[in-house]
Design brief:
Layout: E1 2-6, E2 12-16, E3 23-25, E4 31-33, H1 37-43, H2 53-62, E5 82-83, E6 85-90, H3 91-108, H4 110-125, E7 129-130, E8 133-137, E9 140-141, H5 147-151, H6 155-162, H7 166-174, E10 179-182
Helix pairs in contact: 2-7, 3-4
The structure holds zinc ion (ZN).
Zinc ion (ZN) binds near residues 7, 11, 26, 28 and 30.
């Protein structure tokens, strides 16, 4: 999704979330600092709540910052083996503020009501959305010799291992009903 950013000369840039924090060179010669994603969203008139922990995780995966740590979540020893783990969150949990907003819009403002279908479309196109559940990729370093053990582990243990990565702990705090699953069905 793009954000409009203006140079002091009046030229407008279309910047992507991934450019947050970078510096652009305008044709006028000025340097334009791209603010943080939350600031960009604020500027675009979107509430900061949309920059939740799920966006944070997706951004970290995009930037190659996850999986993090380089040590096996089970044994604590160094490993390069990664397990693709998914955390399934109930979609309505993440969208509750939006729903409240839409309901308020229905009640109080025909303009907001008219805007909300397009917001819903953009949410529906979001790749993490699937039905009413949202799947969050949470790749984790797990030594290959422990991966079978992890696949058979209880939810409680899985969540404890995931919590070794701070941003996953934040996700699990935000979605206490989330369930941990694996990319392939085995
Ligand atoms: Zn300029």
């Amino acid at each position: 999704m793009g954000f409009a950013l203006n140079c002091t000369c009046g030229r407008s840039f279309d910047v992507q979330a991934g450019q947050a924090g970078s510096t652009l060179k305008c044709q006028c010669g000025a340097e334009v600092q791209v603010p943080s994603v939350s600031k960009l969203r604020e500027m675009a008139g979107k509430a900061a709540y949309e920059v939740g922990v799920i966006d944070q995780i997706n951004g970290m995966i995009d930037r190659g910052e996850l999986p993090a740590g380089g040590v096996c979540a089970v044994s604590g020893s160094k490993t390069e083996d990664v397990m693709e783990i998914l955390v399934k969150t109930e979609k309505f949990q993440g969208a509750r503020d939006f729903r409240a907003y839409a309901i308020l819009g229905l009640l109080f403002s025909p303009i907001v009501f008219l805007l909300s279908p397009s917001m819903m479309v953009s949410r529906a196109q979001h790749p993490e959305g699937s039905g009413r559940d949202t799947w969050v990729r949470t790749p984790l370093f797990v030594d290959s010799k422990y991966q079978q053990k992890v696949r058979r582990a209880s939810q409680k243990k899985l969540k404890r291992w995931l919590r070794s990565v701070p941003v996953y702990a934040k996700l699990l705090d935000e979605y206490p009903q989330a369930t941990v699953e694996f990319e392939s069905g085995s």
